[in-house]
Amino acid sequence: MLDEIVRRKEQEVAEAKARLPFAELKARLARHAVERNFRAALEVPGKLSLIAELKRKSPSRGMLRERFDPVSLAQTLEAAGAAALSVLTDEPYFGGHLDFLRDAKQFTQIPALRKDFILDPYQVYEAALYEADAVLLIVRILSDAQLAACLQAAQGLGLEPLVEVHAEEELARAVRAGARVIGINHRDLDTLTMDSDLSARLMPKVPAGTVVVAESGVQTAEDVRRMRRLGVHAVLVGEALMTAPDPAAKVRELFAGM
Fold first, then answer.
1. Which of the residues are catalytic?
2. 84-88 and 49-54 as β-strands: parallel, antiparallel, unpaired?
3. How many CB atoms lie within 10 A of CB 8?
4. What domain count does the chain have?
5. DSSP 61
6. Which of 46, 181, 187, 213 lies in the 20 to 30 Å Cα band around 115?
7. Rounded to whole angstroms, how far apart are CA atoms 75 and 25?
8. What DSSP line would sit under 99-144, residue for residue?
């Protein structure tokens, strides 16, 4: 599945470059500035922050939310206490769109992450054009050269890279590349299986001063409490919120007593 997604994404990027050449995209962003600090929103002393994800469907679960209004959902989740938003922009596999990112950003006051399969600095500039404050970089699908190029592009634009890992070797690569915000994804992107103990194994190996986000598999209040005990700074929650009849009530349930 992951190989298939990457091949399709490479084609999408080539098509996007044909529609809007990279030089023109860069020119449009010549005076770009990021107004919302993604890292600072997560790094709150004594508090576990929530990154609330807007995701219509997923390869592992299928359709999550038939009635999907990104603006209404973003506003609801912000009011419920989300520190930041994660917006899926991949269309074929997750039902996302770049417009969802811009719309969610324009009608809220919290930072927004572009969550997609980013392979090329072009996509980082594209994220900035659609008003992202941060971008997801998945170590597993990037060579060291690609990772470095995407990190450099993000930092040049003022976007915060959330560098995602799923294994100790990937964590080491992220650290070598200079990642300041690392996401530990409990879901293996190759097999889609969950490893709920991954954060516990990797947290001792994360350098001090790094902001850590636990991703995938956070479904209950006990999951949230466990992540807090491990010392992560934030949890990224998507499916539990998108499948809930009342996403705000689900946030209150997850963070009860926190």
1. 53, 55, 115, 164, 185, 215-216
2. parallel
3. 15
4. 1
5. T
6. 46
7. 29
8. HHHHHHHHT-SS-EEEES---SHHHHHHHHHTT-SEEEEEGGG--H
Tell me, what's the pLDDT at 149? 98
Question: Under the phi-then-psi rule, with left for phi > 0, alpha for psi from -120 to 50, and beta for the rest, what region is 46?
Answer: left
For residue 246, what is the domain's CATH number? 3.20.20.70
Tokens of 166: 């799923």
What's phi and psi for 50, nearest 5 deg? -110, 125
Angle (deg, nearest 10), helices 221-230 and 247-254: 50
Q: Does residue 218 contact residue 234 with C-beta atoms inside 8 Å? A: no
- Name the one residue in this structure whose structure tokens are 């038939």: 66
- What is the Cα–Cα distance from 110 to 94, expressed in whole angstroms? 22
Q: How far is CA 184 from CA 84, 91, 108, in A?
A: 17, 24, 26
Q: Which two tokens stand for residue 11?
A: 């084609």
- Two structure tokens written together for 76: 């609801």
Which residues, in sequence order, are CB contacts of 212 under 8 Å at separation 6+? 181, 182, 183, 184, 199, 203, 206, 231, 232, 233, 234
Q: What is the mean pLDDT of each run of 10 residues along the chain (258 residues)?
A: 93 97 96 92 94 92 89 97 97 95 96 98 98 97 98 96 97 97 92 90 96 94 95 95 95 88
The pTM score is 0.95
Three-state DSSP class for 20?
coil
Residues in contact with 41: Cβ distance below 8 Å, sequence separation at least 6, in sequence order: 49, 83, 84, 110, 111
- Read off the DSSP letter of residue 190: T
